[in-house]
Design goal:
The chain is an alpha+beta fold and 116 residues long. The chain contains 3 helices and 6 strands; from the N terminus they run ββααβαβββ.
Protein backbone atom coordinates (compact mmCIF):
# COMPACT_ATOMS: atom_id res chain seq x y z
CA UNK A 1 0.00 0.00 0.00
CA UNK A 2 1.20 3.49 -0.74
CA UNK A 3 0.20 6.95 0.45
CA UNK A 4 0.99 9.77 -1.96
CA UNK A 5 1.18 13.35 -0.77
CA UNK A 6 0.97 15.97 -3.50
CA UNK A 7 1.81 19.40 -2.12
CA UNK A 8 2.24 23.01 -3.17
CA UNK A 9 4.53 25.10 -0.99
CA UNK A 10 3.27 28.38 -2.52
CA UNK A 11 -0.37 27.58 -1.74
CA UNK A 12 0.43 25.70 1.53
CA UNK A 13 -1.99 22.98 0.42
CA UNK A 14 -1.76 19.25 -0.11
CA UNK A 15 -3.79 16.21 -1.05
CA UNK A 16 -3.38 12.63 0.14
CA UNK A 17 -3.97 9.71 -2.19
CA UNK A 18 -4.12 6.13 -0.93
CA UNK A 19 -3.33 3.36 -3.38
CA UNK A 20 -3.78 -0.32 -2.50
CA UNK A 21 -0.70 -1.38 -4.42
CA UNK A 22 2.44 0.56 -5.22
CA UNK A 23 1.74 3.22 -7.84
CA UNK A 24 3.34 2.30 -11.14
CA UNK A 25 3.20 5.75 -12.73
CA UNK A 26 5.95 8.32 -12.43
CA UNK A 27 5.53 11.53 -10.45
CA UNK A 28 5.29 13.52 -13.68
CA UNK A 29 2.52 11.27 -15.03
CA UNK A 30 0.67 11.44 -11.71
CA UNK A 31 0.74 15.25 -11.74
CA UNK A 32 -0.57 15.33 -15.32
CA UNK A 33 -3.39 12.96 -14.33
CA UNK A 34 -4.71 14.79 -11.23
CA UNK A 35 -8.13 15.12 -12.91
CA UNK A 36 -8.58 11.37 -12.39
CA UNK A 37 -8.72 11.84 -8.61
CA UNK A 38 -11.86 13.16 -6.98
CA UNK A 39 -11.16 15.53 -4.10
CA UNK A 40 -14.12 17.15 -2.36
CA UNK A 41 -12.76 20.70 -2.14
CA UNK A 42 -13.73 23.96 -3.79
CA UNK A 43 -10.06 24.96 -4.19
CA UNK A 44 -8.90 21.71 -5.82
CA UNK A 45 -9.13 23.10 -9.39
CA UNK A 46 -6.72 25.93 -8.49
CA UNK A 47 -4.44 23.50 -6.62
CA UNK A 48 -4.10 21.25 -9.70
CA UNK A 49 -2.80 24.23 -11.72
CA UNK A 50 -0.03 25.14 -9.25
CA UNK A 51 3.40 25.26 -10.85
CA UNK A 52 5.27 23.93 -7.81
CA UNK A 53 3.49 20.61 -7.16
CA UNK A 54 5.66 17.94 -5.55
CA UNK A 55 4.94 14.25 -4.91
CA UNK A 56 6.08 12.34 -1.83
CA UNK A 57 5.56 8.58 -1.72
CA UNK A 58 5.18 6.71 1.56
CA UNK A 59 5.06 2.91 1.59
CA UNK A 60 2.52 1.70 4.18
CA UNK A 61 2.36 -1.88 5.43
CA UNK A 62 -0.86 -3.42 4.13
CA UNK A 63 -1.19 -6.17 6.74
CA UNK A 64 -0.39 -4.04 9.82
CA UNK A 65 -3.08 -1.36 9.90
CA UNK A 66 -1.89 0.18 13.19
CA UNK A 67 1.62 0.80 11.83
CA UNK A 68 0.12 2.16 8.61
CA UNK A 69 -1.99 4.65 10.56
CA UNK A 70 1.04 5.82 12.55
CA UNK A 71 3.27 6.19 9.47
CA UNK A 72 0.55 8.06 7.60
CA UNK A 73 -0.03 10.31 10.61
CA UNK A 74 3.69 11.02 10.89
CA UNK A 75 3.97 12.26 7.31
CA UNK A 76 0.69 14.19 7.45
CA UNK A 77 1.67 15.89 10.72
CA UNK A 78 4.95 17.08 9.14
CA UNK A 79 2.93 19.11 6.66
CA UNK A 80 0.07 20.23 8.91
CA UNK A 81 2.49 21.50 11.57
CA UNK A 82 4.01 23.81 8.91
CA UNK A 83 0.59 25.38 8.26
CA UNK A 84 -0.48 23.32 5.26
CA UNK A 85 -4.16 22.65 4.62
CA UNK A 86 -5.12 19.19 3.41
CA UNK A 87 -7.82 19.40 0.76
CA UNK A 88 -10.86 17.19 1.08
CA UNK A 89 -12.13 15.25 4.05
CA UNK A 90 -10.12 13.64 6.86
CA UNK A 91 -10.50 10.15 5.44
CA UNK A 92 -8.31 7.47 4.00
CA UNK A 93 -7.57 3.81 4.39
CA UNK A 94 -5.80 3.54 6.75
CA UNK A 95 -6.86 6.84 8.29
CA UNK A 96 -3.71 8.66 9.48
CA UNK A 97 -3.36 8.71 13.27
CA UNK A 98 -2.29 12.09 14.66
CA UNK A 99 -2.80 11.29 18.37
CA UNK A 100 0.92 10.63 19.09
CA UNK A 101 1.43 14.35 18.37
CA UNK A 102 -1.31 15.46 20.75
CA UNK A 103 -3.83 16.10 17.98
CA UNK A 104 -7.26 14.89 19.05
CA UNK A 105 -9.22 16.57 16.30
CA UNK A 106 -8.50 18.51 13.14
CA UNK A 107 -9.90 21.92 12.25
CA UNK A 108 -12.34 21.50 9.37
CA UNK A 109 -12.62 24.29 6.80
CA UNK A 110 -16.02 23.85 5.09
CA UNK A 111 -15.74 22.99 1.38
CA UNK A 112 -11.94 23.30 1.53
CA UNK A 113 -10.29 20.73 3.78
CA UNK A 114 -8.68 20.49 7.22
CA UNK A 115 -5.64 21.65 9.17
CA UNK A 116 -4.39 21.95 12.73
Amino acid sequence: MEMLIVSSEQQKRLIMLFIRKKASMSDKALLKNLDAYSVNSSVYPAFKKASDLLVERIALPFADEKTGKLLGGDFLYRYLSKGYICLGNYTGQPKPDLTPYGVRSVRMLPKVGFGL
